[in-house]
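Workshop exercise sheet. Pairs work together: one partner reads the sequence aloud, the other fills in the structure field after running the prediction. Swap roles for the next sheet.
Pair: D.N. / O.F.
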Amino acid sequence: MKRKQWKTWMLAGMILVLAMAMAGCGKKEAEEEEEAQAVIYPVSIDGSEIIIGETTVQTLLDKGLKVTVSEMTEDKQIIEYEIDPEEELEANSYYSGASIWLSEHSFAHVSMVTDEENIRMGDAVIARLEFSLVSEEPAGLAKIVFNGVPLSELTREKAGEVFPDFSGDNNMWFSPAEQLDYKYFMSFDTEGKINSLSLEKKYDVDWSSN
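Structure field:
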């Protein structure tokens, strides 16, 4: 009787161990899949590195980058002014419309996101950067580095070598659709020169904020 009961306990224990092992394998596979999807490529401007989803607005300001917003007056005039890092932003919100001027001819649109509490603008995280580079000269492109490659060298052909898992055609190259958290997009002119670059982390927030 006791021996039979011991065998029952042993069998139950083996089943429990096997179940835990299978659960551990499933968890490991899920973590590996999530890690594979969350590929983060940094970009830098004049040596100042920006990581989408991590770098704050204050970090940009501390590195000497001027972040501005533009508004149109009643008489159709555009007024540009620098942001106030002390301005309070609402929780769980997405703010777009800011810009970083890189030169007289090129700029980067900046979008920022807040977390579960109201915070100062300086503490908001950069959620998206979109570089417009149509008229930028090679010297200006060289100051922007994406995943270790200066944009002056990032031709369409080079992009295919650096990002072999991306897809597209002769004029664009973008990250896989299944990579849900982070999205990257590059466009090129007919000569293969890059003319736009965007980096974005997706957030489930209130898109109605400005």
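Discussion prompt: The radius of gyration is 24 Å. What would you look at next?
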